[in-house]
Structure formats: C-alpha cells, structure tokens
Amino acid sequence: MNDVLKALSHSTRRAVLSHLRKGDATAGELAALFDVSKPTMSRHFQVLKDADLIAAERRGTEIVYSFNASVGDELLGALMALLGTKERTSASTSEEQA
Amino acid sequence: MNDVLKALSHSTRRAVLSHLRKGDATAGELAALFDVSKPTMSRHFQVLKDADLIAAERRGTEIVYSFNASVGDELLGALMALLGTKERTSASTSEEQA
DNA sequence: ACGCTAATTAGCGATTTAGGTAATAAGAAT
DNA sequence: ATTCTTATTACCTAAATCGCTAATTAGCGT
Predict the structure, then answer these.
(1) A9, A10, B86, B94: which sits with the fewest CB atoms below 10 Å from its CB?
(2) Contacts of B82 in chain A (CB under 8 A)
(3) How does pLDDT run across A38-54, given as a tens digit for each residue?
(4) Considering the domain boundaries, does residue B73 fall inside one?
C-alpha cells in the first residue's frame, strides 16, 4: 500500500496511468508525452510496475505497458475506509495499517 | 494532490488518520500509540497538516488534532476518476495532472 | 521569576528519490 | 556479423525523507 501511494504521489506517474487507461502504449509513446529524459521515464515505469499499477510486455523491440485495474480498486477500497465519508458498497479489503 | 498522496504513503500517518477519524486527540495521545519518538511524530503531524488532512488547535499546553474530511473526499474523487472501475456518482474535481 | 508539562524546532546521519548523461541489453533487419 | 532502434541499467548529483537526541518555545501554576 505504501508503494502504491508513493507511486501515485508523482504527477508524471499519474499522467502515465491516466493515459494508459485509454489504451496500451509503448515506453516510447509514453515518454514522448513528457518533458523528461527516457531513462527518467523508464524509472517511473519501474515504480508503477513495482506497485503493480501497470504491466509490461515485450513486443519486438518495444515494450508495451498496460494499466492494471485490480490494484487501483483495492487501493480505492482501502482509502474509502480510511478517509471516505461517502457511502461505500463493497469494501472488503484485507489491509491493516501498523 | 502530490502532497496528500505522499502524506498517505506512510503507514504511521495513515494510522494517525484512522485514529483521528474516531475523534480528536492531542499530540501526546497520538504519539503514545506509536513506537517512535515525539519529534518524529511531530513531523508526521506536520506532513498531514501541510496536506490539509488534519487540523491543529492549541488548547492550553496541548495541541489537539482533528481529522479533515473534505480533502479526503476530494482525493477520493480524483483517484476514482484516475483508476476506478466502479461506478462513480459525483466526480467533479478540478485537478489537472501535469 | 521559576519550574513544570507539552510539543515543537534545530541539527545530524542514513536512505531514498528525481533528474541527468553515458553505457548496455534485446530484437529486427540487412 | 554489423547496424539500427528501443528501452533499460549504471552512475552521478541535488534534494527530500525518516529516524534520533538536544535545544527551544508556549502555556500554566506557583
């Protein structure tokens, strides 16, 4: 959970997620959208991948990234339980904060 | 938004929020719940306060902290828009990620 | 003014993070 | 085998983070 939230706490990474929600994209395509070097983008991808927010698949010379919905849903459940005032329907998360 | 997510990406701080949701508490009361020094806790409070997730009010020699629901709701809205697959009703957040 | 309590700020060390350039790995194609 | 493209890993620097102890501020009560 720490990793997921930390991954989300950078606007570039959130923007990457936002883009991937609309469809898969290669590292190059994503990198082209931002004003930072490719290695820097590559590390952003790594952070997102470590948090399991995206998945990577090699396709020839390029690497295709895709959004992973399940982790986001889990996080939303936990966050609603933590700080939500709105009604929540299916909040069955098995996370305990120390 | 970065600050809010970063504030949430530490389990101690989430635990503090979780506790404050059940009612206000002084810095000392909160600090007593965790296995870290008071100065360290004090900085955690600062992070949460900077993110506007909690509010502080001096009461005599002690400082009473309280949970701030509005920011959490905003965040939840933005996060649902970003990574939610569940139905969302009132998602009217005015945040643009760079 | 002095002392006591509660909490913070100051300062330190170790670790992590975000950015960059240079070097490397993986595939495809000639 | 070499070359070209794509993307990563390696290495560096500057800045932020988390923990601590020591010192300071703020308020209350003698």
Answers:
(1) B94
(2) 8, 14, 17-18, 21, 72
(3) 999 999 999 999 999 99
(4) yes
B31 domain-assigned: yes
Question: Nucleotide C27: nearest residue by CA–C1'?
Answer: A61
Considering only CA atoms, which of A66, A85, A60, A68 is closest in space to residue B74? A85
- Model confidence over B14-64: pLDDT tens digits? 999 999 999 999 999 999 999 999 999 999 999 999 999 999 999 999 999
- Is the pLDDT at A78 greater than 60? The verdict is yes
Report residue A54: phi and psi, to 5°: -135, 165
Cβ proximity of B40 and B47 under 8 Å: no
pLDDT band for A87, please (50, 70, 90 cuts). low
Contact assessment for residue B56 and residue B16, using Cβ atoms and an 8 Å cutoff: no
Which residues sit close to strand D, CB under 7 Å? Answer: A 26-29, 31, 38-39, 41-43, 45-46, 56, 61-63; B 6, 9-10, 12, 35-37, 39-40, 43-44, 47, 58, 60-61
Domain count along chain A: 1
Residue with tokens 């959208």: A33
Query: E strands of chain A, at which residues?
Result: 25-26, 54-59, 62-67
